[in-house]
């Protein structure tokens, strides 16, 4: 089950994976609901979180055990992760408790990842002959050095919040991830969208620089009065 609700007076949208008895493990229908909740958000910031004492245990193993088309299932998760990455909103993963397998991969697809002191991370699939196939092998190398990514993915070891911050899995360890979502939501939505798009852009450098110049000019013209006020703050 996925819950989606306006939070902080509508400043951001909270999307909650709500299967606490299953440690928020995801079935195909949950993946579809998660994709829809993020895509349909009209707020500039989305906070992705888990109910109970886990963020997300990844794919529901009852489903994985009986897969008739494993490649299609992997593609399903990849599509949902890509939709989170490509969402118009800035998506914050607020990780409290365990993130395992596909839960780590969904967090990697988010724009900002923050953890509480109780958060833990592991890619445990290699213990029983699998690995995370929702885009995690590609995204890990973006946030970690290659050696750290290999150690994390091959060892199946559990990493606590502070080590996750040192490795680059998360950018902050905070008491309440909702405070980070509210902080980001306090900024101009069009500037948030522009910065997300520019940093995510993987075009050649000269093209990215041209896009950056054009976006800067548009924002400058649209927010001239706000910029003038900011000079005095």
UniProtKB/TrEMBL annotation:
<comment type="similarity">
    <text>Belongs to the enoyl-CoA hydratase/isomerase family.</text>
</comment>
<dbReference type="Pfam" id="PF00378">
    <property type="entry name" value="ECH_1"/>
</dbReference>
<dbReference type="InterPro" id="IPR018376">
    <property type="entry name" value="Enoyl-CoA_hyd/isom_CS"/>
</dbReference>
<protein>
    <submittedName>
        <fullName>Enoyl-CoA hydratase/isomerase family protein</fullName>
    </submittedName>
</protein>
<dbReference type="InterPro" id="IPR001753">
    <property type="entry name" value="Enoyl-CoA_hydra/iso"/>
</dbReference>
<dbReference type="GO" id="GO:0016853">
    <property type="term" value="F:isomerase activity"/>
</dbReference>
<keyword id="KW-0413">Isomerase</keyword>
<dbReference type="InterPro" id="IPR029045">
    <property type="entry name" value="ClpP/crotonase-like_dom_sf"/>
</dbReference>
